[in-house]
Amino acid sequence: MLITRAxxxxxxxxxxxxxxxxxxxxxxxxxxxSIPKSFxxxxxxxxxxxxxxxxxxxxxxxxxxxxxxEEITMLNIMSSVEGRxxxxxxxxxxxxxxxxxxxxxxxxxxxxxxxxxxIDTFLADLTLADILE
Length: 133
Fold this sequence. Notes:
The chain is mostly helical. It has a single domain (5-132), classed as Winged helix-like DNA-binding domain superfamily/Winged helix DNA-binding domain (Arc Repressor Mutant, subunit A), CATH 1.10.10. It has helices spanning 5-19, 26-33, 37-49, 74-82, 109-125, 128-132; strands at residues 53-56, 62-65. Strands 1-2 form a two-stranded antiparallel sheet. Strand 1 and strand 2 form a beta hairpin. The longest helix has 17 residues, at 109-125. The chain starts with a helix and ends with a helix. The model has no long low-confidence stretch (mean pLDDT 89). GO terms for molecular function: DNA-binding transcription factor activity. It comes from Sulfurimonas xiamenensis.
């Protein structure tokens, strides 16, 4: 589930918004990025709800970044639009929360858990500014 279409669209939208000199409405973004307007609107609302974007109402309304691109991490973006932290595997993050109650017997769990930790660290360190470079 790591990079879903929602995460992809969120990142693309934030790239465009980071370069905009004024707020952009969802219709303009939708047309520019060829993203379905209703889907994009939900994504933008999630980003606003989580403090990444500010929503402006009215004729000149739209969305604009609240934070600087170097303060917005990929982990934050993806968690905001997905409603949970991104995972690569269906495996649980702890032995105690294994849905099959067999994590202590699973020879893959330590490897998958370590890999997920590395990915989490990478996404937490990678910012929107890094992608803009």
